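Project outcomes to date are best conveyed with an example. Our students and postdoctoral researchers have been running inverse folding experiments weekly, and each run begins with a structure described purely in tokens. The record below, which covers 187 residues, was selected by the lab manager from last quarter's runs and is presented without edits.
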């Protein structure tokens, strides 16, 4: 009985002295978050499409193409988002839309308003119309405010209402100036 207690004490001492504290980092969800193709517990360096981040961990990222640059936060950051076009398994195809952020109340999702003019043949005039759509906003864009201009690309359905992914954010003061169309607000 005494021998058993001694062995138990030694086993406890050995395991507690060799254990390394786990750094939770971006672990804020209930389930463990990791990139799908990256094994987080590897100790050897792999020469492949995975890049080492600034903390020395492996991270997978890609370019979405179409002339859009990969944000620095997507390359060097440590967030995990399976719906991100740079670090997740989402490809951009189809339409590229431009609009203004109307709401940022949802988690990692923004509501974008698109203003456009519709020709009415009977009156030979344009009428103002708008359309709202939801777009997934990756954690690669940490600062997003209402009024910022957004470029979103179409992707597969990410949820019931989300079919677009934010590719670029222009802050409110640095928006493009276009003389052909006059910007308008509410009716």
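After processing, the design step wrote out the following sequence:
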């Amino acid at each position: 009985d005494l021998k058993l207690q001694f062995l138990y004490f030694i086993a406890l001492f050995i395991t507690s002295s060799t254990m390394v504290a786990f750094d939770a980092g971006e672990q804020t969800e209930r389930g463990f978050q990791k990139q799908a193709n990256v094994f987080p517990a590897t100790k050897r360096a792999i020469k492949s499409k995975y890049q080492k981040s600034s903390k020395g961990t492996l991270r997978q990222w890609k370019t979405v193409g179409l002339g859009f640059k990969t944000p620095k936060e997507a390359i060097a950051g440590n967030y995990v988002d399976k719906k991100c076009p740079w670090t997740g398994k989402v490809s951009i195809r189809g339409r590229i839309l431009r609009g203004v952020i109307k709401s940022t109340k949802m988690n990692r999702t923004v509501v974008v308003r698109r203003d456009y003019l519709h020709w009415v043949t009977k009156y030979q005039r344009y009428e103002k119309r708008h359309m709202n759509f939801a777009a997934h906003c990756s954690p690669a864009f940490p600062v997003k405010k209402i009024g910022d201009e957004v470029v979103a690309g179409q992707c597969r359905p990410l949820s019931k209402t989300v079919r677009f992914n934010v590719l670029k954010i222009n802050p409110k003061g640095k928006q493009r100036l276009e003389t052909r169309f006059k910007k308008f607000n509410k009716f």
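The chain has two helices and seven strands. The two ends are 84 Å apart (CA to CA). The training component of this project remains on track.
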